[in-house]
Structures are given as structure tokens and as C-alpha cells.
Amino acid sequence: MAKDVIIACDFSSKEETLKFLDQFTGRRPFVKIGMELFYSAGPEIVKEIKDRGHRIFLDLKCHDIPNTVRKTMAVLSSLDADIVNLHASGTIAMMKAALEGLTREDGKRPLLIAVTQLTSTDQKALEEDLWIHEPMDQVVMHYASNAKKAGLDGVVCSPHEAARVHEVCGNDFLTVTPGVRFADSAADDQRRIMTPGKARLAGSDYIVVGRPVTQAADPVAAYERCLKEFLGEQESETWN
Ligand code: C5P
């Protein structure tokens, strides 16, 4: 799949989400459905948005024992999302089970990617809360390598880690990167952030952008700005 911008539709109702998407009359954006919307609107929201012509990243971040995740992935596979995900911290066995559950009888399946570390987690939280005493980038690379070993298609990581993930896991291994902010927008609760242009230079395959688009005065203009910066019309920008 070509590089693209994914809008995180973190809304609490179907009505609010469809009203938001109605504003996009031209290009149909790639949409991320997360826990808030999925749990409030139910699984049929996936089909409804898909039928409107959007591709869908179903971001439910599964993490449970392998058998439960295998069966859950079989259910999610039937919803026909384009990308689904889980937490790499659930172990290689859990990721392999997920892949089995996701694969349909005809051998087809959505792409499966793993969350390495949440982009809201910084080194301090990693050490003090999660009790992981290694540098963040090494933890992320270890989790990404585990996902690759399990046969997954890529990871969710910070754009700061995208280039290194490609070095370690190969260029075909997808990097889907939230934690994206315009140079002039608020960081909110995100910690490891980057602008869309810099994320492109860092090698992100997909950027996930929520509040800078959904809360913008003009969401369509904000989305178009993301596309323009990420897909490369600002060549003068340098990374880091
Ligand atoms: O509003 P914002 O741009 O911060 O939204 C980012 C989205 O990406 C949220 O839906 C969040 O759940 C998701 N996400 C993330 N960090 C990860 C994985 C997913 O921020 N590591």
C-alpha cells in the first residue's frame, strides 16, 4: 500500500463520526476506528464506513492469552478492515495465534501490526511505571523484531523510531506512526511527536493523525495540510 495519512476518528458516537466524514467530499480518507468508537457504535460501524469508500485501520490493541486473541482476530477478520492491531508485549506466541485467527479460509487477511510502546509513554514512565529499564529505542526495536519473527506486517511506533525499525526489520515492514503534530499545534498527551513532513523524511509509511484534524476549525483543510506535508511537497524540511 502507498504511503497515506490515517485520520483517528476518536468520536463517541456513530452520528458524530459520520457527520465528521461527510465533510470530506473529494478524497475519502483512510480512517482509524479506535476503542471509543468501536465500543460505542458496535462492529457494524466498520462496515458502514467501509461501504462509504474509506479504508479502515481497526485499532483495538488486543492483548490477552493466545487462544482468546486467536478467536477475537477471527471475529475482527470477518469485519473486513484493512489493518488490525495488537500489543507486541502480549508475546510472540500471542502474535502468532493472532495471525492464525485473522487468516480466512481463502488465505486472505487484513494487515496485522503490533503496538511497540504507546507514543504517550516516555522513558520515565517506561522505567517507573512499566519497570522496563532499557532505553526506549531498544525496547521498541526488540518488540518490533518480535513482531517480525511472529510474521506480522509491521508496527505502530513513534515517527522517531520509524527509520531504525526499517533498518532492523526491513523496508517492507510497515511503520504506522501516531504522535504527529503540526509545528504550530499542541502536543496534548503525546510525548514522542513529529511533524508530518519530518515523519515522511523519517520513513513513516502511514501517519495517524487525530486531534490536529478532528479538532481543527477546518478539518478538511487540516487533513489536506497533513497530506501535503507528508506526501512530500515540502522538500526543504530536514529531519531532526
Ligand atoms: O489525537 P492524536 O493525534 O494524539 O491521536 C493519536 C491516535 O493514535 C489515538 O487514537 C491513539 O489511540 C492512537 N495511538 C497512539 N499511540 C500508539 C498507538 C495508537 O497515539 N502507540
Number of strands: 8
Strand count, sense and closure of the main sheet?
A: 8 strands, parallel, barrel
Structural domain count: 1
**What is the CATH topology classification name?**
TIM Barrel
Portion in helices: 40-55%
Structural class: alpha/beta
Span of the ends, CA to CA: 26 Å
Cα gyration radius (Å): 17 Å
> How big a fraction of the residues is strand?
15-25%
Mean pLDDT: 94
Instruction: Assign an overall shape.
Output: globular
What is the highest CATH level, the class?
Answer: Alpha Beta
What CATH architecture label applies?
A: Alpha-Beta Barrel
Q: Provide the CATH superfamily.
A: Aldolase class I
Low-confidence stretches: 234-240
- Give a list of the ligands: cytidine-5'-monophosphate
Provide a count of the helices.
11
Sequence of secondary-structure elements: EHEHHEHEHEHHEHEHEHH
Main-sheet strand order equals: 1-2-3-4-5-6-7-8
List the topology elements.
Blueprint: E1 4-8, H1 14-22, E2 30-34, H2 35-41, H3 44-51, E3 56-62, H4 66-77, E4 83-87, H5 92-102, E5 111-115, H6 123-128, H7 136-150, E6 154-156, H8 159-169, E7 174-177, H9 196-201, E8 206-209, H10 211-214, H11 219-230
Parallel strand pairs: 1-2, 1-8, 2-3, 3-4, 4-5, 5-6, 6-7, 7-8
